[in-house]
């Protein structure tokens, strides 16, 4: 069904109208020739609102949007009868799979650290679980990435406003460092849990991925965020590469596709074969060289040429070393 966007009235009004339209056709199908005033009273809207809904239904239907594709109806004075339903012949109902998917998604949302409007989430979850019946009791476990114990420890530090000493692996530099951070909030981005904190080592706000925190210790001192600290704007996504970083493009085979899930990629292009073209920005070509060599035959450097030469030379030197008799 294709429905034009309603302008004005706010998102809540638009959502209410969409729900009403989805159920209006099966309602009218079950009551051919019903008076508009009676239908409006049943649906809890005014006569004028119902007539506007009926006018909107006339331009809704199936792709093609021709006379035989759009919802059609006949009027006899103040009575209306649906003559073509475009397949919307029953009220909207969730399938078991859809209901279970919603239950799991809402449970995950409820477990997201620092999530606002928790009461609204709990109310929505209760309604879906009630509608799903026995299906809501399916043995589905929802667990945050990074380990539930670690997430709980970080969440507790945020709530208690305590500083943390962490051991953190930085993938971009392929190094592990120890640093003291002042946590501000927990986030869930693309299915990964993060703690946003003031890093005393970098003297800036940083996002630390929870599954890359190897160890953490809550300190006795309070978390202190300086006045110049600003939270990250994630409206455009987590990965916002600086234009001055080097763009590396690799051709990876099936066994190397895992890098698109573990590293922030700027572009992933699926070719006709099994190989993918993957582009990511790096701050250090030495790290990129080690990274590509670690992928072995599953990766080929497309650009930059400088990186391709470094990888080729080190691979050749390694082969020469193996050729020397011991």
TrEMBL record:
Where's the PafC HTH domain?
Answer: 16-129
Q: Which InterPro entries match?
A: CBASS_pafABC_assoc_protein, PafC-like, PafC_HTH, WCX_dom, WYL_dom
What range(s) does the WYL domain occupy? 151-215
Ranges for domain WCX: 247-319
| Taxonomic superkingdom | Bacteria
Output the Pfam families linked to this UniProt entry. Answer: HTH_PafC (PF19187), WCX (PF25583), WYL (PF13280)
Q: What is this protein called?
A: Helix-turn-helix transcriptional regulator
State the organism named in the record: Micromonospora sonneratiae
